[in-house]
Amino acid sequence: MEQQIKKAIKAKMPTYIQQLSKLVSIPSISFDNFDQKYVLESAEAVKQMFAEAGLTNIQFLTPESGRHTVYAESLTSPDKPTILLYAHHDVQPPMREALWNTKPFEATVSADGERLFGRGTADDKAGIIMHLAALEQVRALKKNDGPNLKFIIEGEEESGSAGFAGILKKHAELLKADAVIIADLGNFAKGTPSITTTLRGMSAVSVELKATKAPLHSGSWSGPIPDVGQVLCRMIAELTDGTGKILIPGFEDGLVSPTAEDLASYRSLGMTEEIFRNDGGVLDGVKLKCSEDEILTTLWRKPSLVVTAMEVGSRMNAGNVLQDSAYARIGIRLAPGMDADRCTQLLVDFLKQHVPYGIQCNIVTEDGANPFVTDTSHPFFKKMSDAMTAAYESETKIIGCGASIPGAELFRSTLGNIPVLMTGLEDPECNAHGENESLYLPDFEKGIVAETLFFGGLC
Ligand SMILES: [Zn+2]
Questions:
Q1: Domain assignment of residue 35, given as a range
Q2: CATH number of the domain that residue 321 is part of
Q3: If you measure from the C-alpha of residue 91 to the centroid of ligand 1, how many angstroms do you get, rounded to a whole number?
Q4: Could you tell me if 24 and 49 lie in one domain?
Q5: pLDDT, tens digit, for every residue of 60-74?
Q6: Cβ(459)–Cβ(80) below 8 Å
Q7: What pLDDT digit, counting tens, does each position of 8-20 carry?
Q8: What are residue 341's phi and psi, to 5 degrees?
């Protein structure tokens, strides 16, 4: 059976690559400063593919921004399990076009045939085609008697999913399912099937300090008047110790430690300091803040604070000026178990308590994202893990992700605590969000096999 599925999918790969290339040709960048007609065009293209595949109840679920999420379903029987399949059809901008070796919106296979280059190939248009291909395959296999499948393809993931919570809440009945597959992550390495079981969350604030009405001559005024640049640096420095531990009292309350199974899987991934340094482009002589053994747990299971932007005067006009204001944006990645709203409030309170000299301090908070942990005890988790092991002919790894996908927690909380299976077709070389994004084609094929085997094994 397994060999038959693998053969059938291999034979169809040129068609699947062609479908993917069609979606890649539409520059569906969901940022306001780009022409949004392409997001509509890609929503229409997805809709048409769904119609051609014989899906039913096809409709746009449209958030306030107008960037359609596309819904469709293939229902077999109320007695069968229902799986909700997520991916997104919008993409990031191409960034610096001069650095692309191929045209960003013209899917191009590499000379060795291994990778497909183009914006959105890996993130996340391949996810759409993977779901669609697995549907086609399981229908053939089960003679239309497989699980019920519902598709939800978002149109504004890359620009922050502002309307997605509203869509899930409004259409909770339509989207009702026994599990959701979020195909927007990826494999730890090429050929290594991976299920992401944890995501970090995010608390972010912008802080602005003001001490004088306008910038002043530093010779005439500095000394008696506090320098907002130094003050802001000290305030930020007080937030962490030398290892990066957050010093705000109670901030790490609730932090969930990795299980023995998590740790064993992380260890089996063979991450070394050398690999990590190379992948991250860490300069010679710069030391990591954790030991080699702790790299993955630090990245996936601990909070980390980053000053993502800072402004005191400007580099262009760096003269002897006592600046009137200093600005910084602080983002803290939250680890599983922590609560975003609570952490943001603690951060704001701590900063406000540490402003010296009565300096004016204005803090603007952003909407946070809660961290996420998948319930790995659900039988669907093991079924997916086994399906991926069989498809890749390599043991499936449990991995974490240091970033946030707000959708994961939204699906879980809106759709009644259903299991969230996070898979996907990215790999460390795919360069999602950067220039020369690409998809590793052998894993594209294996991903389709895995999802087909998973569906096939459900009923
Ligand atoms: Zn994505």
A1: 2-199+371-456
A2: 3.30.70.360
A3: 8
A4: yes
A5: 999 999 999 999 999
A6: yes
A7: 999 999 999 999 9
A8: -60, -45
